[in-house]
Design brief:
There is one protein chain. With 173 residues, this protein is mainly beta. 5% of the residues lie in helices and 48% in strands. The chain has two helices and twelve strands. The strands form two sheets. A six-stranded antiparallel beta barrel has the order 1-2-5-4-3-6. It has a six-stranded mixed β-sheet with strand order 10-9-8-7-12-11. The longest helix is centred in the middle third of the chain and has 5 residues. About 3% of the residues have low confidence.
Length: 173
């Protein structure tokens, strides 16, 4: 399976015990139906290797405790420590464009109808009165409000948010 057909779940960040259990940090805090998951894809030497799941459950916010088949010791678990964990895009909870989760938008390209490609979404702040979308491009960051006046279209297939924002927003930070 190719990386382009997958999304990043997180990283194996810690061993749990001595029987091969690991903790995966769910970087994008995506909720999963653990009964529907059979495997995780773990990156090794730039390839995605399937690891079948015996048990998986959330333990803390953004942390998943996982027991993988054929990983039965601390030594075997150390081989996947600090590795990136992926799932095929089909495991992403499907929503219509009007109900897309803000977490799903992280990594989407922001393309302005006049100015072209502006960068990738790195963060969405929902703690403010108006949701703010943060975009980063070549070390520069700017934000703009998530409002129908600015957000024109979201293409979940292509991973693009089409916007029409004033150029002066690019200088705000």
């Amino acid at each position: 399976m190719q990386k382009k057909d997958c999304f990043l779940v997180g990283t194996v960040f810690k061993l749990h015990g001595y029987k091969g259990d690991v903790n995966i940090y769910n970087e994008v805090d995506i909720p999963f139906d653990f009964n529907a998951l059979d495997y995780f894809l773990i990156e090794q030497n730039n390839e995605l290797i399937p690891y079948f799941i015996e048990k998986a459950r959330p333990t803390k916010p953004n942390v998943i405790l996982v027991k993988l088949e054929d990983v039965n010791s601390e030594e075997e678990a150390k081989k996947i420590l600090k590795r990136k964990v992926f799932l095929p895009k089909e495991f992403f909870t499907e929503t219509d464009d009007n109900d897309i989760s803000e977490k799903q938008l992280i990594g989407f390209w922001v393309v302005d109808v006049k100015m072209g490609e502006l960068g990738k979404i790195t963060f969405i702040n929902s703690q403010t009165a108006q949701q703010l979308i943060y975009v980063s491009n070549n070390g520069k960051e700017f934000c703009f409000p998530w409002h129908e006046q600015f957000v024109k279209n979201i293409d979940t297939e292509k991973g693009i948010m089409e916007v029409e924002i004033p150029e002066k927003f690019l200088d705000l930070n």
